[in-house]
Amino acid sequence: MVRSPQDRSEAAGAGEILPPGAMNGAESLLHTLVASGVEVCFANPGTSEMSFVNALDRVDGMRAVLCLFEGVATGAADGYARMAGKPAATLLHLGPGLANGLANLHNARKVPISVVNIIGNHASTHQRFDAPLTSDVAAFAHTVSHWVASSAGPRTVAADAARAVQAARTAPGQIASLILAADAAWLPAERPSPALPVIGPAPVSDLAIAQSARALRAGKPVAFLLRGEALRGRGLQAAGRIAAATGARLVCDTFTPRIERGAGRVPVERLPYRPGPAIAFLQGTATLILVGTQAPVGFFAYPDQPSELTPPGCEPLVLAHPHEDATAALEALADALGAKAPPSLSPFRLPDMPADGALTDEAVMRLVGRYLPDNAIVSDESITAGFPHYPLLETAAPHDCLQLAGGAIGDGMPVATGAAVACPDRKVVSLQADGSAMYTLQALWTQARERLDVTTVIYANRAYKVLLDELRFVGADRAGSNAFPMLDLHDPVLDWVKLAEGMGVEAVRVDDTRGLDAALKSAMGQRGPRLIEALV
Amino acid sequence: MVRSPQDRSEAAGAGEILPPGAMNGAESLLHTLVASGVEVCFANPGTSEMSFVNALDRVDGMRAVLCLFEGVATGAADGYARMAGKPAATLLHLGPGLANGLANLHNARKVPISVVNIIGNHASTHQRFDAPLTSDVAAFAHTVSHWVASSAGPRTVAADAARAVQAARTAPGQIASLILAADAAWLPAERPSPALPVIGPAPVSDLAIAQSARALRAGKPVAFLLRGEALRGRGLQAAGRIAAATGARLVCDTFTPRIERGAGRVPVERLPYRPGPAIAFLQGTATLILVGTQAPVGFFAYPDQPSELTPPGCEPLVLAHPHEDATAALEALADALGAKAPPSLSPFRLPDMPADGALTDEAVMRLVGRYLPDNAIVSDESITAGFPHYPLLETAAPHDCLQLAGGAIGDGMPVATGAAVACPDRKVVSLQADGSAMYTLQALWTQARERLDVTTVIYANRAYKVLLDELRFVGADRAGSNAFPMLDLHDPVLDWVKLAEGMGVEAVRVDDTRGLDAALKSAMGQRGPRLIEALV
């Protein structure tokens, strides 16, 4: 028998000695998640998740954030974890609900970052029937997950949840997916599980440090390719000291999940996007020291162009694999080199005011740079519009920049959403291309719902501009009458002011520099969600 | 070497004797699809699909329809195939692009219906690198596909495409996914392949017909549970003759992919949604003859309720499996029974005019029924709002009704889009719940882009109303302060007029019967996309 909620509602504190069956699986799961440090759940529940939703009323400590599409939930979990340093949960509805969240889980996997997915499934007794929503949930989960488990029943839910969180928090961060059958959630369960130990980054061997030190002492050109912890805080400081002492270049991947930038921060060069320019950029480098990343490869392959972007004569050398302690490794390397002098830092110098007149991509970034508040978070999915003007923010106010790690567009607005939940005291600036923004525009509703302090700037160029460029690489001089409509978004025009207002976000359209100047001034001077459609 | 488009552009007719390498893989693929009867492609391409897009300019016969989210593309392919009786292609961008389309492919799989997915992948030489968009594309595809293949290179693309279409068109319809590496698309390819034979429905054995005839002659209560071809045209006529001659009940699944309804059509009862009412509905039935479907099971399981909905004493009997020829089987059965008298048909009787005043769910359906044009297509994803009032359309003008087959919400507006592409001369009425409409609202843009004759009616109840009901089934009297926000969409309110206008669709909001009456009159009196937000 299922006990009524009244029977168990008072007894459900995690620390008490409970009678057996005093809580159901969903309650046991929620207590376990909270005890394991998971405090936020980005949710899009359905019928099979109703026990979980019901348990939210009886278990303290979990903030549930409703998302109107699952891709928003998974992208928000990614953004949350990048900024909070610990995972959020998602709550997803069976195979198809998970399916809608897979693209942003792909991105999260490529960060890599910690996410705990709770995926409802039919009751165990119901799974053998071909009901409409029956699917192979585990098969969906395996496409993007490092760790997948299906709770065999309510007795193991708490233990499984603790293991899921441990898997997610294993350095450098993993996607853990726990499939929760509806009856495992509604039946009487065991006590909650305490948190399991977090499996942090592994130490880097002395040999790896000695190898890098030798390369740096050899007097030949060295570049560091940095990702993860190495791009902020003590790790970045240590890298900066090494660069100051040795002349080594500091470089980050073309798209980097999180980097501390702006005035007072150690400047890091960005690897170019196209294979030719990327190889030219690294030309002459004798050793490319890899810290938390791999040797660079092309985003895509092209006819007659190489996939590997390390130029001839450049030797990759791993200082720290992604699961290793990059911060400690860089500090040890700096010590080994006697690199004690402080790094050179980016000065504070606002971008010049753009000329009056029609907006350009560059003018947008200049004005964003001029208004960027101290300690802001920039979620950058501006694709072709923002990419060339990325250097403009290097001397703006110090900020964290979050980029699309896995190439699956539709991640920027959800990441901004999750980052804002993680850091309620910081302004989030979400730089968005209009094409990519359409994939997960439902994020705006959650921003309004939760009163998140996110200002979204839409670069409205009304095209899949990157693809207009790409078409040249497969031999087309230009798009013809059938191809062009696949790349152009002018018919009909997307009205981002109406789309935002339709989801409760205050919005304005601007088409000249004065208009954007005023709109940014207004948005940065207040709290809460805003959208600025910048016609470029 | 890749040949320039100029070299090969003139020579690319499918019927000519071409020199080897006269076309690339993408052109060979496109010619093959067109030759196999695939004339529409719902596309959301990326870089790896640029050769396909480029080929659209050099191969005639393929209509490419741009969708701004992949779930729109896959749902539209489903709707197109339900109405056109043949598959459309989708064009999707690598694993994550496919991922965004999986939920509606799940739905299409449950119809089941023919879909040909063309999924771009990295060039074969590039796949071993961990580029941002690298993923196991086949693993994503297998979750929803009956048939999956990866073209080994340009030489096999045409043959693979012909096999993909054959797999998709194998009765009763399958999901076929062809993974196309970028280099297989851009390199010189073989000639196009001619169409392969369509593997149509299998004949039903004489034994199966004799068994059903015996059950019908036994004098005990018999009900037919019908799906697929049996719910329209000659199949439904034959079922109606059998019912008239024997008193057997004609029933369809709770959610049926396509059914001919309205005045002059054979009336079919709809199986109730909840297990208790469904079992009560079938109580007393001695034999349940299955035509193109399975014995009914619950949409979800609930504590202490059965999954199987066939009541005790009711014996399921298969007349035609889904891959068998239900139309011929029903006609043979009618002949065997000597059921020559014409079936009784639904009369033409418009729903009564609702009372003046605030809109109710029922009033919406009454007015829709009053304005429904002859031969309209109704895409019904109205969930809790429309469900109880489904009988009101039984005596409205004759129409096809398309419902959510796989339970993954977010299919109604894409299905409406595809149906409108398939049937440009028929009005499509898309009945949408506001919660489910948010999953794939980007469909509205494609409706505007293609000037599709779709009128969308949003039941704006501003809640996941079905879940407010479902919560009771897991023991909660009501949603508390944490659970309620997971089910309520009032904060902020979704403004569907702005959302529609933001995507180029003319829209109006109504909150009383007179307003809806005027809005429907206007929408039905013109062609092109419209949206009516009905506050209920």
From TrEMBL, chains A, B:
Annotated EC: 2.2.1.6
Span of domain Thiamine pyrophosphate enzyme TPP-binding: 406-533
Domain of life: Bacteria
Pfam families cross-referenced by the UniProt entry: TPP_enzyme_C, TPP_enzyme_N
GO MF term set: acetolactate synthase activity
Residue ranges occupied by any Thiamine pyrophosphate enzyme N-terminal TPP-binding domain in the UniProt entry: 23-128
Transmembrane segments annotated in the record for this chain: none
Signal sequence range: none
Primary enzyme class: transferase
Record's keyword terms, sorted: Thiamine pyrophosphate, Transferase
Family note: Belongs to the TPP enzyme family.
Record PANTHER family: ACETOLACTATE SYNTHASE LARGE SUBUNIT ILVX-RELATED (PTHR18968:SF86), THIAMINE PYROPHOSPHATE ENZYMES (PTHR18968)
Protein name (database record): Acetolactate synthase-1/2/3 large subunit
Species name: Labrys monachus
Upper classification of the organism: Bacteria, Pseudomonadati, Pseudomonadota, Alphaproteobacteria, Hyphomicrobiales
